[in-house]
Amino acid sequence: MNTHPIGIFDSGVGGLTVVDKVSRLLPKEKIIYFGDTARVPYGNKSRETVTRFSKEIVRFLLKFRVKLIIVACNTASSLSLGSLRRSFAVPIIGVIKPGVCEALKATKAGRIGVIGTEATISSNTYKRKIKSADKRCLIVQKACPLFVSLVENKWLNDDITLRVARKYLVPVLDKGIDTLILGCTHYPLLKNAIGKIMGKNVKLVDSSAAVAKYTKRLLEKKGLLNNAKRRNARFFVSDDRQGFAKLARVFLGRNITAEKVCF
Of 48, 123, 208, 254, most Cβ neighbours within 10 A? Predict the structure, then answer.
């Protein structure tokens, strides 16, 4: 048994979908979450900048003696995961590989769609991961940058949300995909709208749920599960504690208190 916490970070609030799924699957684990609200979004920043930010956050999380770190940001997972693993000894996992594994299990025709931020899509990380596992797969990628703003404005099932989703997703659907990876941690909150456009024949892969399952398997393998009866979570941000806490209720369905830290 290991009672040290799990560290989770994102560029802002999106990674709270990972917190939610990890908390549900591993209810005894302690969680330290950091949202880089002062420097969000990461999707329009360079690899060097995202990697520098990510290393600063990992150093902060290590102060809490975390036993594992989840990079709950598709952009950071795409651009900085390799560098983080080379720089730190603690196990660090991203959201790309778990999502790819789930998609490969789900697809029947080998036709997989990927939606995400501009940076995630332009990095081609999902495409490379899928192709390395199965070269026969057809991958259709689409950047959907407005989805993040829709979630953060709480327009989850609004008419404008459906119109934006249709504009983004119909061209992807027309390619005949049978599986769609939600390659941004905000996107699971738009599952209802996305599902209406994609229809029942397209399997939606929630990378947040996939990374929670992957985390559980890894902790079991390394003998790091926490079997204590009590767990808790602490939330840190680099700016706007009140705004973060307000949005957190949308992601977690409960009130939280956020603490502000400066690097």
Answer: 208
